[in-house]
Automatic annotation (TrEMBL):
InterPro entries: NUDIX_hydrolase-like_dom_sf, NUDIX_hydrolase_dom
Organism in which the protein naturally occurs: Vagococcus elongatus
Any one GO CC term of the record: cytosol
Nudix hydrolase domain sequence ranges: 44-175
Name of protein: ADP-ribose pyrophosphatase
The entry's keywords: Hydrolase
Amino acid sequence: MMEEKDFVETTVSRENVFNGKIISVAVDQVVLADGTQAERELVFHPGGVGIIAITEDEKLILVKQFRKPFERTMLEIPAGKIERDEKDPRKTAIRELEEETGLGCSSMEAIYDFSLSPGFANEILYLYQAKGLYPVARPADQDEDERIELQFVTLAEAKELIKSKAIFDSKTIMAIQYWELEQLRKK
């Protein structure tokens, strides 16, 4: 069995390739524990949040929006990136819920956090569940470049949307699986 030290990669040099509003890209030259040299392309991202928001009538709130990398609209749970000056993902989740749905909540509970593409990116997504939803009188504005539409779906409908690939992203699939497990625990 290999020891932890056998997995370590030592960075020899880093070339910063791109610094954008959201991501930074670098190329690292590394040496593996056995002396082998390799190159690693890395994407640095401040992280994001996803929110499971279920209405009193047991419907999950989804956001429909165009996703440029896939050149299509997608259905996702409300979500957003952590701003560089934000330190508390929970506050980001509260802000994003309000911006995207016009709703506030009495509690925002952390579910779990996870990496999205650990092979090349350091982005962590923090998944929360909003409870005690209520309309906000004057909700924060959506981002200027966002065009979204809300949809409300039952658990059965959500599972069908996964099968048809209308729901295609990992955070939303994980949120729906979490919701289903919670339903099973209640039985």
